[in-house]
Amino acid sequence: MITRADRGNSIVILPTQLYKTKIQNFLLSNNFHTATTNPTKTFQAQIRKTIKESKTLIPHDTRWKYININHFAPSIKGLIKIHKPDQPICPIVNWCNTPAYKLSKYFTNKINYIAPLPNAFNIKSTNDLIQNLKDTPLLPHFTFASLNITNLYSNIPVVETKTILSNMLKQKSVDSQTQQEILVV
Question: What is the pLDDT of residue 152?
Fold first, then answer.
């Protein structure tokens, strides 16, 4: 099998069974569970219901845009980390055809417009980081650190996130119906 390496614009050639084993090892070591049934249809029905019940967030005449008609479960592929011992994978998950993809994109933009969160410690791109570093005076006692994030989004605390979002919506004086629709999703 031929696949891309995680870094270095390289390709990796390895036996297909080894690649499948690396994917399986990643899934097992990160506490993924195998479902006995495919929940995609049920999830699609929930998405349709959410869209139908929206009174303020989704304009009635554009609701059709946020339903992914050709939906299926996300797929995973792995880029091989040739710079690490045992060459594990860097997982790449394709969410584009999942039931919630279009709706989540819409809600992300809507929430950022209604109640933008402060970006005190965020960067938008590599160029943004470079510019910020150029504008930062480097003093002798400063230490650089490189952090490797693992499973970045799988551990977002839902309750705390909703509390922060609720506070931001109240601070921005967003009407209660819109607040409820955002926080229920």
Answer: 58
